[in-house]
Amino acid sequence: MKRQYIKPEVSRAELEQALTEVNEQLWQANRRLEEEERVRQEFLANLSHDLRAPMAALTSTIELLQSGQDMDEEKYKSLLNLMSRRLGMMQSMMDELFLLTRMESPSTRLQLEKVQAGVFLEEYFFACEADSKFKDRNLKLEVPEEFPYLIEVDVNKMIRVLENLFINALRYSSEGAEIALGAYCVAENGERAVCIYVRDSGEGISEEDLPHIFERSYRADRSRTPEKSGTGLGLAIAKSIVERHGGRIWCESRLGEGSRFFITIACA
Ligand code: ADP
């Protein structure tokens, strides 16, 4: 019988090249999985630490109250206040975790409506101006007067994003600092989009921390002080909400030079 040799259509060099590319893709996928696993482990460790701290404080306060120790009314009241603050902390952590889980679940639907970006931002800004929390900060609105662009958003969720950014701008700055809310129009993947920014002249973020701040429960060591006690979930929530809207969120910052958070949302 005569043997037939089939000439391969792909050369050995091409095959090797394809194999190298597949190998590279697998390696990168593996790196991503490892990174996700690291973030997940850290999140769980931080979460249990953050819940354990107020729980331990609650337990010792309850024990003190149960001990029947003589105490004046003032001390008694201050212990009750302490307990209620700790419970409040645990409650807000649970609420934020719940919101984050909902936002990350594909089955959660957004209540989308078309709004004028300028009007939406102005309304949010005026509410902040009226809020006594911000009375020691220099608030600025930098949305152009003529800003007719429409965006389709879940208004309550987007307010939550702005709120998280504003609360951080407040938390990581001191009296007299500037906090600005602004917007401009950009081209995003060839489409028109609105870029919203929140800028503060606060303490800024180090080069080392910057790549991690949107991770669940990541907090720069400097931020782990009782007076700055956040849950470490604010930016992860903001990111998941913005991404559910098909948008992007990122931050530019340098330690000691303030921070600028940007969000893009496609125009409707
Ligand atoms: P937290 O509840 O700790 O504020 P976030 O997820 O909102 O958690 O933020 C994560 C970390 O990013 C903060 O702990 C802080 O270190 C840093 N960060 C966020 N916003 C700012 C800001 N405006 N200025 C400086 N650091 C910030």
* Total count of helical runs of at least 4 residues: 5
Mean pLDDT: 89
E-strand count = 7
Q: Could you tell me the strand content as a percent range?
A: 15-25%
What does this 3D model show about the protein?
This protein is α+β, with helices and mostly antiparallel strands. Helices cover 48% and strands 19% of the residues. It has 5 helices and 7 strands, in the order ααβαββαββαββ. A 5-stranded mixed beta sheet has the order 2-4-5-7-6. A two-stranded antiparallel ribbon has the order 1-3. Helix 2 (73-104) runs parallel beside helix 5 and helix 4 runs antiparallel to helix 5 (234-244). The longest helix has 55 residues, at 12-66. The termini are far apart. The model has no long low-confidence stretch (mean pLDDT 89).
In short:
The protein has 268 residues and is α+β, with helices and mostly antiparallel strands.
Task: Provide key terms for this protein.
two-stranded antiparallel sheet; five-stranded mixed sheet; 5 helices; extended; alpha+beta; about 270 residues; binds adenosine-5'-diphosphate; 7 strands; single chain
What is the fold's blueprint, element by element?
Layout: H1 12-66, H2 73-104, E1 112-116, H3 117-129, E2 138-142, E3 150-154, H4 155-171, E4 178-188, E5 191-200, H5 234-244, E6 248-253, E7 259-266
Parallel strand pairs: 2-4
Antiparallel strand pairs: 1-3, 4-5, 5-7, 6-7
The chain binds adenosine-5'-diphosphate (ADP).
